[in-house]
Amino acid sequence: ETGVTQSPTHLIKTRGQQVTLRCSSQSGHNTVSWYQQALGQGPQFIFQYYREEENGRGNFPPRFSGLQFPNYSSELNVNALELDDSALYLCASSLGGGPDIQYFGAGTRLSVL
Amino acid sequence: DQQVKQNSPSLSVQEGRISILNCDYTNSMFDYFLWYKKYPAEGPTFLISISSIKDKNEDGRFTVFLNKSAKHLSLHIVPSQPGDSAVYFCAASGKEYGNKLVFGAGTILRVKS
């Protein structure tokens, strides 16, 4: 059974650019959630995808968008990057689309200069 | 507004003794609670969870206690081991609250040998 994998591990972008982060869910899981973790804080919910449909969204602007593919892998896209977008982006997968144990990947560290 | 609070930024415990990590929440719609452990450069790892219909759940050295009237939960680690040194996050979720996990800011646990 493979765990949650994220790519890339690190990324450096400049303000105004766009970025795509990728996540492969754990085998058998159909739900993917994305979180942003700023330094010294807990992860903050961005959105969740369940069976390729958005299934809940946190307090993030529309320039944060996502996709889930038929194999349940997922992408997080961020447009018009701002300095405050610098953070660790975590992907978590779970089974069922409801309150459940979510299993996390190691994250992508994004630095916006 | 912080709906899940971990008021102790850090805790230091001697090896073999008990570690007690605390968490408070404000939203009475939460009905499922989880603890995660995070090592540097890794994603959060699920430790233990508890449903609001229970007041205690035990798994090996880890026990979570839930006091719904006080909106308080705690994680007990007995006996503490140096490998337990990590950041511990409390998270809450619930059917009525959607599928997102709401995290506290974390507590750094250091177990001294």
Characterization of the model:
The complex is a heterodimer of chains A (113) and B (113). In chain A, the strands form two sheets. In chain A, strands 2, 4, 5, 6, 9, 10 and 11 form a seven-stranded mixed beta sheet that branches. In chain A, strands 1-3-8-7 form a four-stranded antiparallel beta sheet, with no helix packed on it. Chain A is 0% helix and 50% strand. Chain A is globular and about 40 Å long. In chain A, strand 4 and strand 5 form a beta hairpin. The mean pLDDT of chain A is 93. Chain A has strands at 5-7, 10-13, 19-24, 31-37, 44-50, 53-57, 64-68, 74-78, 87-94, 103-104, 108-112. By secondary structure, chain A is an all-beta fold. Chain B has 113 residues and is an all-beta fold. Chain B has strands at residues 4-5, 10-14, 19-25, 32-38, 45-51, 56-59, 62-67, 72-77, 86-93, 102-103, 107-112. In chain B, strands 2, 4, 5, 9, 10 and 11 form a six-stranded mixed beta sheet that branches. In chain B, strands 1-3-8-7-6 form a five-stranded antiparallel beta sheet, with no helix packed on it. In chain B, a hairpin with a 4-residue loop joins strand 7 and strand 8 (72-77). Chain B starts with a strand and ends with a strand. The mean pLDDT of chain B is 94. The interface between A and B is medium-sized, with 29 and 27 residues.
